[in-house]
């Protein structure tokens, strides 16, 4: 018995679609890459390299908040623009994901 799913016998008849698994892996990879990019960029801009204390100072906290908010807003604006334009052939990221999906088949 699983603590999270209860009795797993109820899922015995469910088939796993390998293409959906691969798509989920690609989405996870893209999200992890975005998260790591935000993390490193905001750390560079906001956190002093010499650590004097274990916690962030108030100025560092507000800088990180603003940095992440700007990054998310810019990402959303770009996604909205790309979705509106629907020009996947001109996007290198689209070609990269497309290649990853081809390799997974």
TrEMBL record:
Topological category with respect to the lipid bilayer: Peripheral membrane protein
Sorted alphabetically, the keyword list is:
Chaperone, Disulfide bond, Membrane, Metal-binding, Mitochondrion, Mitochondrion inner membrane, Protein transport, Translocation, Transport, Zinc
Does Plastid show up as a keyword for this record? no
Gene Ontology CC annotation, any one = mitochondrial inner membrane
The entry's localization annotation reads: Mitochondrion inner membrane
Q: According to its record, what is known about the domains?
A: The twin CX3C motif contains 4 conserved Cys residues that form 2 disulfide bonds in the mitochondrial intermembrane space.
Its recorded name reads: Mitochondrial import inner membrane translocase subunit
- Say which species the protein is native to: Australozyma saopauloensis
């Amino acid at each position: 018995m699983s603590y999270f799913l209860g009795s797993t016998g109820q899922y015995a008849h469910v088939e796993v679609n390998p293409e959906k698994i691969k798509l989920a892996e690609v989405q996870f990879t893209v999200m992890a890459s975005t998260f790591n990019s935000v993390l490193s960029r905001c750390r560079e801009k906001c956190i002093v390299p010499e650590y004097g204390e274990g916690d962030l100072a108030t100025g560092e906290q507000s800088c990180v908040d603003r940095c992440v908010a700007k990054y998310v807003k810019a990402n959303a604006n770009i996604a909205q623009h790309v979705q509106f334009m629907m020009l996947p052939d001109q996007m290198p990221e689209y070609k990269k994901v497309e290649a990853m999906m081809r390799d997974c088949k």
